[in-house]
Amino acid sequence: MKKKIGLTALSLTLVLSLIGAVDGLASAAAAASTTSTTVPPTTAALASRSTAAEQGVRRGPDPRWIDYGNCGSGYTACHVAKAHQRAGRYQWRNGRWFAWGTDRVRGTWGETWAVFEREARRVRAYLMALQVARHRRDLVNRWSGVANCESGGNWAIATGNGYYGGLQFNLGTWEAYGGSGMPNQKPAWYQATIADRIRVSSGLHHWPRCGAYYG
Fold first, then answer.
1. What pLDDT does residue 54 have?
2. What is the CATH number of the domain that holds 169?
3. Is 166:151 a contact under the CB 8 Å cutoff?
4. Alpha-carbon span 130 to 128, nearest angstrom
5. Residue 163 belongs to domain spanning
6. Does any domain span residue 185?
7. Is residue 53 part of a domain?
């Protein structure tokens, strides 16, 4: 009976040892499995990722961009081109395509130098018209005091006394300083222009009483 008990104890010890060994192998396998998922990527894998990340990268300025430099004074086609460029429109360079990263780009249809020149002419004409209108308005304002004194501010007056318009020109003086047609039929700025020629040439003595209201 004692012998059987001893054998049984020995068998139990061996079984427990085997179970421990199996558990140890399982733990080692699990650890190996975990480690394999955190192994740093190979050089090839890194290169592949780098290539993928660089796809679509734009190196350098947009090839549609043109540096127009210093456009100088006035308002020229160069200024128009710069303004359009700032608005996101690019010069149409004969429909030429450019590679930019993975994209192919080109200018905006119709954005040609001829278009820039035409727009610049229109802008210059508009600015000139504003300047002329301002000059005429200022001229009439300077002579309005004289007109109020001479004719009550009626630039179209013709009473039959030999004097015409807001500044009461006689025809001899009017024509001598470049006036055409009848003074009273001309706009106020035209009459003021002729009057200003007289003032520059010989002063305000043609309006001996009302000349004091000039300016």
1. 54
2. 1.10.530.10
3. yes
4. 5
5. 139-213
6. yes
7. no
Q: Which long-range contacts (CB under 8 A, 24 or more apart) does 17-25 make?
A: none
The pLDDT value recorded for residue 43 is 47
Phi first, then psi: give them for residue 156, nearest 5 degrees: -105, 15
Q: What's the sign of the alpha-carbon dihedral 113, 114, 116, 120?
A: positive
Residue 55 has which token pair? 């796809």
Q: Taking a C-beta distance cutoff of 8 angstroms, is the pair 76, 83 a contact? A: no
Q: In which element (H, E) is residue 116 found? A: helix 113-151
Distance CA 24, CA 198 (A): 119
Mapped onto helix, strand or coil, the DSSP state of residue 39 is coil
Number of domains into which the chain is organized: 1
Beta bridge partners of 164: 158, 169
User: For residue 61, what pLDDT is reported?
Assistant: 86
Q: What was the pLDDT predicted at 32?
A: 40
Which pLDDT score, from 0 to 100, does residue 133 have?
Answer: 98
pLDDT beneath 50: ranges in the chain: 1-41, 43, 45-53
At 60 the pLDDT is 83
Domain membership flag for residue 77 = no
Asked if residue 166 is part of any domain, the answer here is yes
Question: pTM to 2 decimals?
Answer: 0.62
Six-digit token pair at 180?
A: 């055409």
